[in-house]
Each structure stands twice: as C-alpha cells, then as structure tokens.
Inverse folding.
C-alpha cells in the first residue's frame, strides 16, 4: 500500500509539473550549431552494420540425395545433341584436284611385282 501511495503522489506531481510548464509556454532558446563531432556518425553506423553482416558465417547443411529422375539425363542430352548434329545437312563444295602424289602408283606396283627381291612379290 505504501508503494501505491508513493507512486500516486509521483504521478500527480509529474502531471502538475507538465501542466505548469505547458501553461507558461516553456520553449527552449535556439542555440547556435556547433560541429563538435568531427566524423560522420552515419558512415560509422553503416560501416559497423556492414562489418557485422560480413562477420556472420552462413553454413549450408548437406542436403539428402533424392533420386527422383529414373534415367540418366546426361546420356539423354548426349543422344539428343548427337541426333541434332546428324540431322544437319552439310554441303561440301567440290574440291580442286591437287596432284600431291608425284608418281604413278600402278607403275610402282608393277615394278615391285616384277622384282624377285621385293618382299611384296613374296607376299603375293
């Protein structure tokens, strides 16, 4: 009961004080701006929040393997790509004749078959 009485008296005093101040029109004087903090508190707060966010370690727990696809998708993709590549028609232009063998192979074959020392003649 003592506490309740003290609390009630303090509450009444606070209400009385606030009504007296508001009745007098209590206003604070405008003060000159003094730049007494030589750093940006906003930047420091942002940097601190960034450092706290970066310091948090996120660890993902291992997921269970679920075999929900009953076939090999890699194999199917390879088959599909192979079929797609084989379905394309390639038009290879006619090449010019290049005489890259400077001798007559039929003539060389005849000479080898007539030569008794040749290993080609023995295998024939």
């Amino acid at each position: 009961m003592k506490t309740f009485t003290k609390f009630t008296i303090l509450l009444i005093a606070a209400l009385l004080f606030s009504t007296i101040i508001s009745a007098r029109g209590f206003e604070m004087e405008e003060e000159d701006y003094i730049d007494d903090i030589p750093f940006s508190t906003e930047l420091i707060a942002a940097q601190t929040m960034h450092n706290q966010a970066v310091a948090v370690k996120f660890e993902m727990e291992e997921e269970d393997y679920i075999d929900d696809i009953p076939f090999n998708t890699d194999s199917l993709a390879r088959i599909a790509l192979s079929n797609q590549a084989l379905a394309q028609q390639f038009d290879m232009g006619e090449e010019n004749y290049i005489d890259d063998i400077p001798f007559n192979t039929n003539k060389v074959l005849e000479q080898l078959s007539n030569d008794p020392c040749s290993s080609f003649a023995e295998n024939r």
The chain has a mean pLDDT of 81. The helical segments are 2-24, 41-55, 73-87, 105-114, 119-123. The radius of gyration is 50 Å.
